[in-house]
Amino acid sequence: MTPISSYNSLGSVIGITNLHPITTDNLFKIYIDLYLYKSLSGGQAHTQEAVLSILGNFEILNQRIILNDGKFQYDDSLARSDEELNGIISRLRTKVDQAKFNKLFYRDEDGMPFGRNKFSIKEYLENLRDVLMSWQEPDEEDRDNVDHILYLSKFLIDNLEPLSTGTSKFSVSRVDDKPSELERGMDLLKVAQYLFGPQTFRLILFRSLWYFASDGKYNVLPLSILPEDLSEYVLDLGIISSTQRKSTLTNEYMPLATATDIRNHIPSLLLGNSFFNLPVDDGSNIDSTFYFGYGPLPFISDSISIPKFIDSYELNQYIGRLIFNQFELSLNKYKIDNHITDPSVSKVNLGMTAYEDIFSVVEDKVIRHFTSKSGDIAQNLEDAFNILIEARRELLSFTNDNTANMLLKGVAEDTLRLQFIKFFQNPIISTTKIYFYSTLVDGKIPWIEFSKNDFAGKFTQMTGNTHASQWSAFDYNYIEQYNARVIDNRVDVLKKLIESQPEGSRNVRIFIGQNIGSSSDLSTDYGYQYIEATTQSPKWIPKTEFMTSQGKAPSYIDVSFEEGTYKEFEMQKLRYLVLLSLAMELRMITGVRPNQEYEFNYRDFIFIIKKADSSVNDPNYIAIFNHHYITQLMPIHSSSEAPSSVKRGFTKINLECPYKNEIYWKQEFSRRWIEYSDFIPFWVSGSGLLINAFSYYKDYFGYS
């Protein structure tokens, strides 16, 4: 039998290119969407946009870097695109029962991921062999690239004897000089990498790849999972990242002792030369290590030269640290850019966030002012540069001194920083002149007029106060006036979506759900739940005609744009729903007055648009929206038996897919929704929505 390693498709480097096929930013976004998105966003599931972004990068994600004559180069011989993967699983699924096919994705017949000690790697490889051997080769004229991949995979496996059953360990003994079970297991792992692609095979083992049916075909679906869940899956197979080495003096590796550890190793697990050892039935020192190889690493310079005789452990650790450092930098920047904080955030971090946001506005205004000014352009640019140097210095001074570094003797004025603080905290004025006292231009103190509009959506709390309720720089009247435009634009998106339904039907029912988090002992993540109204529900929870004096009913709002309806009232309903989607809450984390610490979160409502008169149990829907996205593809985690209270009840959300062939989805809906996201947060308490404090946001329905 010819060993697998002799085939070019698996054993040699072909298609080498020195081009970087993916940017560090794109790679980081995939990492965020897959493994940190849910934890950073408060438990949200994937959105359509995130899924499409990951899918669109599968081909370049599946490229590898290899060491060739001491230089890193790209190998695209196993670069599987999402189209190829869709074709592969569609071909295989038609010949295999669902339970066996689900095992390819490390899931049981109900689609739930296998936990620890439930499904060994040996069982996985034997199942892979069975699935591939059931595939029927098409006629020559019907072959395409997908079938060639399947053909070679089946051919290679057909040349391997089956693995024995009855034990999860691999035999290292050879019979009649044939490859041992361990050798066959290694070859089957290479086939799995060849079939699915090296990175997507990792996603399968990490339970981060799933599939769904659409128009008789099957499509891969990347899944965002929590780091804690990934920790369980990694521990299950004993996968080790290249950053887990104990020291440079030993080849031992540290296991992932806690779920917290996983966060430091995810990038290396996904892209580094991670490995695991196949369990063997012999206590000898025989090598049973399977290495995944390196993924695409665009931040590794082409100029790096690696000594030919470098220790492989040292190289793995070195590359692992490069990956860790790059993604740590990217994560810190991501948190600042998205104003993501956590209980350990410091006042310095908050100050830096405010500085970055405010200086970005100041820099833009100063450059625009001096480039449009008449006179010598070179001198104008030099003046702008000098102003920005001093502005940076004053904004970074966290002492809040009330006297500027004056060039004019005997005159004491507020520093640039203090001028902005007073401007942001003043509820009356909406525009002001900001003076740059530390610089003279043409013998005069320069000034530029700023409007609070310039800082819409920016973080402007410069006093170091960590109380989230004091972070907004704008008075209620200003917030209401500005946010009304954002809400109206999103309402227009919803109205056009409703009116785009086929057969002239312009009636929908919009159910309200919310992510209610985990149980008090953290044993159950309840996820999203339909909200049920009770007789004691707060006014912001709409009640329905099905309410009884004793019972509870799903909370929804019917919207109709049929002829004869009072359209303004229907628009008011949509405004209310959009407002609700943007609502935030303030929650105390820890501390006793006066040193309490707070965090702010979106209330994480979710709104499911269904056909008119639909029940809460209808598994199909038109679209789903929340504060970030409107989409047709949003897998939702929801568990049963979520606890209810006298004020509200909860019902498990069961959804399958959009109504088939009945909704013409326009990408314009998603694009415009994101485009109109520059909303100034208004603060609400942990128990109620302060909607009535805003005339524009009042409760339009008057439910009792």
Write a concise synopsis of the structure shown:
The chain is an alpha+beta fold and 704 residues long.
Strand composition percent? 5-15%
Q: Kindly, what is the distance between the CA atoms of the first and last residues, rounded to a whole number of angstroms? A: 79 Å
Major sheet description: 8 strands, antiparallel
Mean pLDDT across the residues is 76
The helix content is 25-40%
Q: What does the overall shape look like?
A: globular
* Radius of gyration using CA atoms only: 29 Å
Provide structural commentary:
The chain is globular, with a radius of gyration of 29 Å. It has 704 residues and is of the alpha+beta class. Helix 8 runs antiparallel to helix 9 (181-196), helix 9 packs across helix 10 and helix 12 crosses helix 13. It is built from 19 helices and 21 strands. Mean pLDDT is 76; it is low at 1-16, 246-260, 342-348, 404-410, 466-475, 589-600 and 683-704. The longest helix is centred in the middle third of the chain and has 26 residues, at 312-337. A hairpin with a 4-residue loop joins strand 18 and strand 19. The strands form seven sheets. Strands 10, 11, 12, 13, 16, 18, 19 and 20 form an eight-stranded antiparallel beta sheet that branches. Strands 1-3-2 form a three-stranded antiparallel beta sheet, with no helix packed on it. The chain has a two-stranded antiparallel ribbon with strand order 4-5.
Summarize the helices and strands and which ones pair or pack.
Blueprint: H1 8-11, E1 16-17, H2 24-40, H3 48-55, H4 58-61, E2 64-68, E3 71-75, H5 82-93, H6 98-102, H7 121-133, H8 145-158, H9 181-196, H10 198-205, E4 209-214, E5 217-222, H11 227-237, H12 262-271, E6 275-277, E7 289-291, H13 312-337, H14 347-371, H15 377-395, H16 416-425, E8 431-435, E9 447-451, H17 476-499, E10 507-515, E11 528-533, E12 553-554, E13 556-560, H18 567-582, E14 584-590, E15 597-602, E16 605-611, E17 620-621, E18 623-625, E19 630-631, E20 648-652, E21 657-658, H19 667-675
Parallel strand pairs: 17-21
Antiparallel strand pairs: 1-3, 2-3, 4-5, 6-7, 8-9, 10-11, 10-13, 10-16, 11-12, 11-20, 14-15, 16-18, 18-19
Helix pairs in contact: 5-8, 7-9, 8-9, 9-10, 12-13, 14-15, 17-18
